[in-house]
Amino acid sequence: MENIKTVNDFNFKNKTALVRVDFNVPVNNNQSFQILDDTRIMYSLPTIQKIISDFGKVVIISHFGRPKGKYSKIYSLRFIISYLSDKLKIPIKFSESCIGQSVEKKISELKNGEVLLLENIRFYKEEENGNENFAFQLSKLGDIYVNDAFGVSHRSHASITMVPKFFVEKKCIGFLMKKEIQSLKKVLGKGKNPITILLGGAKISSKIAIIENLIKLVDYVLIGGGMSYPFIKAQGGKVGESLVDEYKDLKMLQKIIEQYKKQNKTKIFFPKDVIIADSFKDSAKTKMASIHSIPNGWMGLDIGPKSINHFCEIINSSRTILWNGPLGVFEFPNFSSGTFSIAKAIVKATQNGAFSLVGGGDSIAALKMRKYETKISCLSTGGGAMLESLKNKILPGIKAIIS
Which residues are catalytic? Predict the structure, then answer.
């Protein structure tokens, strides 16, 4: 990992760079394709600009949505053209095909400093199937392969893991990928102590392996949101109608709980109190309860004031912080206090010199609702990819570059 090549290791003059990016950005639903969050695009621009400044040619590969291997107008990448052109200050050419003579002809006509955007790579079923022949056809489009798509680098898709095999030594990562890798290194074992990991959201099944790995690497693991209720249930607590995900292996949860109780370094904390509701809506009847004794017919939708104070105290004393997943149903104003209080605490800790890394769509959305996104050390562009990295795994997209 230390010797992984970046775009700075290449001079792209008179070369065609095949750049895999992640332009899978949220847009509004009224078919006007207004971009609601341009973080992933903005973070990829420095890589594209570097190649252009070298007088190289850029061929962009990206996906958008889940068209399931078929062309669909609503999943076309055409809406990116004008936006990208405005940001790069140059015209952006477009190809409706990703492989074949048509796109090869357009690339042969590209001049140094020009950019060609390919249509949604997921219009080809071979992409998600990791088809080797499809990857070979893609590899014919460039001289140097660049992966700057951290958000999908945990996927074994053709453009992520198969295409790099055809470039031997002429492959590298972009600036976005480099930043993501360096940020994770600052958390995993190399961060300044105390190191605190805050995990929320609902999908506990995707985070069990993370907790097992982090137990020996960090000082504090704070678990909240929908993720906390299965743990409480495993300890014999009553969680009422609270979300318990699809995770059913309570014995595994009990094993993890016993494991951290036996070792001395890492402390794992759950909420003490929660705001409970009699239905899943903002106007629901609410009251405070211990997280261990939620009555039947009631559900926990946010952490309570005691939990907020406890979590914030730990965050304020931390020097390295990673946050993934909200602490409650923050989309409902009546259940947003926990998530926004944590976000504010992380901002304060960052201003006081802590390193902070925030990933996951909901966590970043919460930051942006309070205009905190520029007050965090680093926003991760890949929730799933970040979580896979926390399991102490080399992502397939990174492994394909270094192998």
Answer: 40, 203, 361, 384
